[in-house]
## 1
Amino acid sequence: MSILHFIDYLNYEKNYSPYTITAYKKDLESFQIFCNKKYNEKTISKVPYTLIRSWIVDLVESDISNRTINRKVSSLKSYYNYLVKTKQIGQNPLRKHQSLKVSKKVNVPFSEKEIVEVLNTFKNDNDFESVRNKLIIEILYSTGMRRSELIGLKNSSIDLSQSTVKVIGKRNKERQIPLLNSLIGTIKKYQLLKSVNGSNVDNFFITKKGDMLYPTLVYRIINEYFSKVSLKIKKSPHVIRHSFATHLLNEGADLNSVKELLGHASLASTQVYTHNNLKGLKKMYNHAHPRSNKNN
């Protein structure tokens, strides 16, 4: 059974994001290369668990983290579940596999002060890239959207008349997120500079050359600017998402409201953010967000 058939299934039937699909494909191809190189196995559809275990040992000995190994094995397990479902094989060779133990990872959010300090660095910058970078940081912090969701924003996603942004999340689930008034000015400024840029790309955020953004560029932007004001080890778009949720909850936002804003399927996913001095679940987004009008 071709890996490409499985990838088509993830794309057209499961509606996974392009980034998720790419990760699955890389994991499966990595295992296929291992099987071919070490055991002269050309396909991976019917290999025994002993061979898979050998691959896992090889990954461990390569100093790859247990978390990454578990993700790779999870990709493989999903592939075999698909083969079982389509009656290509009788049972999943990973059905009894136990995941490797991983240490519980807690992302330390940026403080409100660090967010403000970063945004203040843009005060006198009016060139396209600076305005875009400021808007990327502001939107990530003001909406809590994922990096992939930010990259996927279209020109039509922004509705200034309603002060909302339409976000397409995991499994193509759509949600509307309010835009703070403090964002509107930056959005209009960016749109003006973007029109001068003359890009034909339908994506809302673009590169200086007019192409759509790519994941490593967004990561570099966040890491570069926050490295100037923060000593935290991890500086990434996901830490801003974590900061968004933590700050809202600390200000009294309702847990269910934050769950909807983040696009989580269940409260369990959102509750990971409640360990930082939660004051109470009483207020909604516009009242709670540190950069809403009540603080201006």
## 2
Amino acid sequence: MTTLLAHLTIKPGKEEEWEAIMHDMITQTFATEEGVLRYEYWKGQEPNFYYCLLSFTDKWTFYAHQMSDHHETHDFAAVLDGIRLEYVDPVAGAGGGLPKTDDPALPDDASEAMKTAQERFPLDIAAWWASRK
């Protein structure tokens, strides 16, 4: 499973355009993709700052989402000022029912799209998680 929290800074004056893109992304994702456990956008307290909580059944589902037509056709560069992806792992018994985040190796027969996604969005599993159940 893969869960991450995206920290998003939007260009000033682009909030309405950003929220319209997010509405479309949510609609298209849930209409066309399987294995999406959570996909939610939130406004932060700081101006032009948003969060996105994403959770997928596995890394391959996350990569398919990132490489989907509806993801690739939006002009994110026109509205995004910055993005930081933070991979997160649920605390046992307190993680909303989400399974742990893991990073299996890319299979030998992985498609070019999966290889590209692996390069663009490598999972960053914190070493200290291993000592926590």
